[in-house]
Amino acid sequence: MDSIEIFTTALRYEEKIRDLYSNAAQIVDDLRGKSIFGALAADEQGHIDFLYYSLVRLRESKAIDIDLLSTSIPDMTSVKKDLDHLKARIPERMLGDIKTVLRSALEMEKETSAYYRQSAARSEGAIKEILEKFLLIEIRHEEVVQTELDHAMHNGIWFDFMEVGLEAEED
C-alpha cells in the first residue's frame, strides 16, 4: 500500500468518526456532552485537514511537516492532575442516549487506532513517523472516550481507578 492510499483510507476513518462526534454534539441534551463531542469533532477535523494537506504534498513530491499534526485533547497525565476538579463538573445523570454514542465512538476509535498501528508497521521514514503520531493521538481519544463511558455507566471505574471502596462500613 503506498502513502497516498494509506492517507486516503485514513481520511475515511477520520471523516467517519468526525461525523459521529459532530452529530452527537448536535443531538445530546447534556451541555458537557455537547462540549466533549464538539471538541472531539474539531480535533478529528484537524486530522482531516492534515491528511488533505499531506495528500497534496505527496502528489507534489514535497515533504510533509509533521508538526502541523496536533491534538487539542489533553493527555491522561494532564487530566489525572485535575481529576477532582474534573470529576466535580461531571453531572451525575447524563441525559439522552450518550452511552450508545460513547460505545460507538470507542469502537470507531479502536478501529482507527488499529488501522494506524497496522499501517505504521508496513511503512517507513516520514510516513511511518506520521502514522505513529496519529496512533498516539487516537489512543488519547480512546482514553478520553473510555473515561466518559465509564462515568456514564457508573461502573465504579474512573481513570482506571476504582471509585467505590471495598471496605466494610462500620455502624
Task: Describe the secondary-structure layout.
Elements: H1 3-27, H2 31-59, H3 76-81, H4 83-89, H5 98-121, H6 125-153, E1 157-158, E2 161-162
Antiparallel strand pairs: 1-2
Helix pairs in contact: 1-2, 1-5, 5-6
The number of helical segments is 6
Q: What's the mean pLDDT score?
A: 82
CATH architecture: Up-down Bundle
Fraction in beta strands: under 5%
**Total domain units:** 1
Q: Ends: how far apart?
A: 66 Å
Biggest beta sheet attributes: 2 strands, antiparallel
Helical content class: over 70%
The H/E string reads: HHHHHHEE
Strand element count = 2
- Lateral arrangement of strands in the main beta sheet: 1-2
Structural features, described:
The chain has a two-stranded antiparallel sheet with strand order 1-2. With 171 residues, the chain is mostly helical. The protein is built from 6 helices and 2 strands; from the N terminus they run H-H-H-H-H-H-E-E. The longest helix is centred in the first third of the chain and has 29 residues, at 31-59. Strand 1 and strand 2 form a beta hairpin. 70% of the residues lie in helices and 2% in strands. It has a single domain (3-156), classed as Ferritin (Up-down Bundle), CATH 1.20.1260.10.
